[in-house]
Design a protein that fits this description.
heterodimer; A: mainly alpha; 13 helices; 78% helix; 0% strand; globular; B: alpha+beta; eight-stranded mixed β-sheet
Chain lengths: 314, 518
């Protein structure tokens, strides 16, 4: 099948992208001022202590040698050891990925149907009070950055009304209801941005699709209005699918802000911490995981494109 | 041999405190302790889970490398020291039941408590103490603790319960130094597990260490102090957002908050929460490198000290929660503090005259480096820019993140703001910053100051010692390389039913006596 060949080529390209990303990440960290030794010792460091610690952590060997060793390890399935915590990288990254995936998954599962529904309603009821209401609310939601929304929600729902826990930290052995309630605020914060973006995109492309000759033709052929809407929607969804794919990447790496505000120990937090502390082995794998997720999501979007639009064949 | 057992140590220290510390601490805004109902009441109740919210997260739990408050809290729970330094800087016995020194003060002998168990079941002995310090003193360790115990040369086990420290020069502050965060005693038989699965003799065992999320500690059933600790579990929880911490504390999902920024104090004024503050020896100096122009001229350094309105700065940056500094590192509540002259009150005319004297009658252009990731540092730099301008000193403020500050500004730029939390002993409060070649000294070198500080190190008699430090403070005040405008206060908060915990000026947290009331 041709499409299988397409997927194989894309996966091959993704591997090349990951290799380039790993070189760039490694190189950029070398350019940043400071290293893990200055991070560990802080201001109490003396030059002798720094030198001794660098030897201990293996930081004194040339950068290409360290990179080659890292690649060798990864190829053999060894993700290495965190310079900071002296624990294996694999569980650190996989645990973070798992937690972020829960957060992102819940946010996506809710946001995709809701935003498509709202977008379609807005387009069909164009210029009514309902459409205006949806537009205004989504515009407000988009206008404020996540850390403002997060803090506002904490102040309102956790501090003022005490409805929900302010932080997503929970004892992993806590009952399910406790775990679920701690996810509400971070998911809500993510939803605000996601919903707004996708709703507006769906509305715009739906309005466009409803204007197209093929919709007019369907209507003139005497199809029931509901069939006409489905007809138009299939065409209107193309840009939304692209946005969803981009959002998968955004959700996995870019929920950094939400994870920080709510102290959620996911992949985003891990990325920020490993950059801050120059913990290269952790940073490398966390970056690769996010880059892979981005690549795979886009690949998925292309496959869905082809399904939605018969004109697209790879 | 001069005996320094429990009683005499406490007494002599208490006498020192009459010189100022006790009174000053009592006069702090609110009582600096979450204390119990007092000895007359019923014994504290055992049980309960205490969770403490922190904005930061520990990088290591190895006491030889721990350099921040979040790390100290965890190592203090897992381990014990030979001595304990309390919130008034009084030294108490901990793993050492008593100690003594020779007359010169360069050989110290510590007698260990018997029957102390590690978490993995083995009994503590003198070899563990020797191992702990040899591990740190090994030049290959790269441990920042290497230089923090003064001139320790060799540590030997005399018998199973006796340890002897041989020093290269007399060092009066050794018992204080051993009670600080680096001096936690680790077992000699589990070296490779210290960073991941530590075992100590402390009141709590490590259950889970999840950097960036939380650290969970549980009560050690065989702790050597009978009946301690009272808590079943102690958690440190990472909550970067202050609003989340405030909501969690007032809502009761955490019971303590490590640090309350001045602007959040009002939102914690509820009956279920107690906010407590202490004067701390922490400060934020403007550091000048005297080996570089124009700071090589003592008159320039002095001129810049006249260009800061200390009272105004304390009001603007700290909402009044700070005390005036006198351009050296000894806070006014230290027993070794002595008033200095002349007062460096804000005086543009005097600064201009000093600058003209130094050959800078047309003023100065300076780059002042600071960080936006430590409360107060950026505000300090910007305020200084405004205050210095009328004297023709144009200050260009350069702001960087803290990790960049540590790597490229600290000890590298000629003029920068910095952030120090202060130290327990008077030697460590002054020596590393101002002695020629001191660990945190940028290049200041004054023979007279060196002589005074070397003398202070070796002198054990308080009055003589204080005299030496008073003279050093006066010299540094005028000639020294720092503008120290203020000493900060440390504010923390807890649920009102938490008792038995003191707010330590060095931000050390010790929960072995903590319990829930009622």
């Amino acid at each position: 099948m041709r499409s299988l060949g397409f997927i194989a080529r894309r996966v091959g390209a993704l591997a090349v992208v990951l290799a380039v990303v790993s070189v760039l990440t490694f190189a950029i960290v070398q350019l940043l001022p400071g290293d893990v030794a200055t991070e560990i010792l802080g201001t109490s460091a003396t030059p002798e202590d720094l030198a001794a610690l660098r030897v201990k952590l293996g930081l004194t060997r040339p950068t290409p040698v360290r990179y080659a060793e890292w690649v060798g390890g990864v190829v053999r399935g060894d993700w290495g050891v965190s310079l900071l915590y002296q624990t294996p990288v694999r569980p650190l990254v996989l645990e973070g990925l798992g937690r972020s995936a829960i957060l992102a998954g819940v946010a996506l599962v809710i946001s995709v149907p809701v935003s498509i529904g709202l977008g379609v309603v807005g387009a069909l009821r164009r210029d009514t009070w309902l459409d205006h209401a949806i537009s205004t609310v989504t515009l407000v939601a988009l206008s404020l950055p996540e850390f403002v929304w997060g803090t506002l929600l904490i102040l309102l729902l956790a501090y003022r009304f005490r409805l929900l826990p302010p932080s997503s930290f929970v004892d992993p052995r806590a009952p399910l209801a406790t775990v679920a309630s701690s996810l509400v605020l971070p998911v809500l914060t993510l939803l605000l941005a996601l919903l707004a973006q996708m709703t507006r995109m769906t509305r715009a492309s739906m309005i466009d699709a409803l204007r197209q000759p093929f919709t007019e033709a369907a209507r003139l052929r005497g199809l029931r209005p509901r069939r006409v809407v489905v007809h138009a929607l299939r065409n209107a969804l193309l840009p939304t699918v692209g946005i969803v794919a981009l959002n998968v990447g955004f959700l996995l790496g870019g929920i950094v802000v939400v994870e920080t505000v709510f102290a959620y120990p996911g992949l985003g937090r891990l990325l920020v911490d490993s950059v801050n502390h120059r913990d290269v082995p952790v940073l490398q794998m966390a970056t690769l995981v996010v880059a892979s997720a981005y690549g795979l999501a886009n690949l998925g979007a292309d496959v869905v494109y082809a399904y939605l639009d018969p004109r697209i064949r790879y | 041999m001069r005996e320094m057992d429990r009683k005499s140590t406490c007494l002599s220290r208490r006498r020192l405190l009459q010189y100022g510390a006790g009174a000053a601490l009592a006069a702090a805004l609110q009582p600096g302790a979450f204390t119990g109902p007092g000895p007359a009441s019923a014994a504290p109740r055992s049980g309960g889970v205490l969770k403490m919210a922190w904005a930061s997260s520990p990088l290591t739990i190895d006491p030889a490398y721990a350099v921040s408050g979040d790390e100290y809290m965890i190592t203090a729970a897992i381990y014990d020291n030979l001595t304990r330094v309390d919130e008034k800087f009084v030294v108490h016995p901990q793993l050492a039941a008593k100690w003594s020194s020779n007359d010169r003060g360069d050989v110290w002998t510590f007698n260990l408590q018997r029957g102390v168990k590690f978490h993995h079941g083995r009994e503590l002995n003198a070899r563990d103490v020797v191992f702990t310090f040899e591990r740190i003193l090994d030049p290959k360790s790269g441990s920042p603790a290497r230089t923090s115990f003064g001139p320790v040369g060799k540590v030997e086990a005399v018998d199973d319960y006796t340890v002897r420290f041989h020093l290269s020069i007399p060092y009066a502050d050794l018992p204080v130094a051993l009670g600080t965060t680096y001096g936690r005693i680790v077992p000699s038989d589990r070296a490779e597990l210290i960073k991941t699965a530590p075992s100590g003799t402390g009141p709590f065992r490590l259950a889970e260490f999840r950097p960036g999320a939380y650290t969970k500690l549980v009560r050690f059933q065989n702790y050597w102090e009978q009946g301690r600790p009272y808590l079943d579990e102690l958690w440190q929880i990472n909550m970067p957002a202050m609003a989340a911490q405030v909501a969690a504390l007032t809502g009761g999902s955490v019971q303590a908050m490590f640090e309350v920024p001045a602007s959040f104090i009002a939102s914690l004024q509820t009956p279920s929460v107690t906010v407590a503050s202490v004067k701390s020896p922490g400060f934020q100096p403007l550091t000048m490198n005297p080996t570089e122009k124009p700071f090589d001229n003592a008159r320039v350094r002095e001129a810049l000290k006249y260009l800061v309105d200390r009272e105004a700065l304390i009001k603007a940056v700290w909402q009044g929660n700070a005390t005036v500094g006198e351009d050296h590192s000894v806070p006014s509540f230290s027993p070794y503090y002595a008033a200095t002259t002349p007062s460096h009150a804000y005086d543009v005319a005097k600064a201009k005259a000093l600058l003209a004297d130094a050959g800078y009658s047309n003023g100065l252009n300076l780059e002042l480096w600071t960080s936006n990731e430590r409360v107060g540092m950026q505000e300090l730099a910007v305020a200084y820019q405004q205050m210095a301008a009328p004297a023709g000193v144009k200050v260009d403020v350069k702001t960087v993140p803290w990790s960049v500050h540590v790597a490229t500004v600290y000890k590298k730029k000629p003029f920068y703001a910095n952030n120090w939390f202060g130290r327990a002993s008077i030697d460590e409060t002054v020596y590393p910053y101002f002695r020629t070649g001191g660990g945190f000294n940028d290049g200041y070198s004054n023979k007279e100051v060196d002589t005074l500080l070397d003398g202070g190190r070796a002198t054990t008699e308080f009055k003589k010692r204080k005299e030496l430090y008073a003279r050093a403070e006066q010299m540094i005040h005028v000639d020294g390389p720092w503008v120290v405008a203020y000493f900060t206060m440390y504010v923390a908060a807890m649920r009102s039913n938490v008792k038995g915990v003191a707010v330590h000026p060095l931000r050390w947290w010790d929960f072995r006596e903590a319990y829930f009331e009622g």
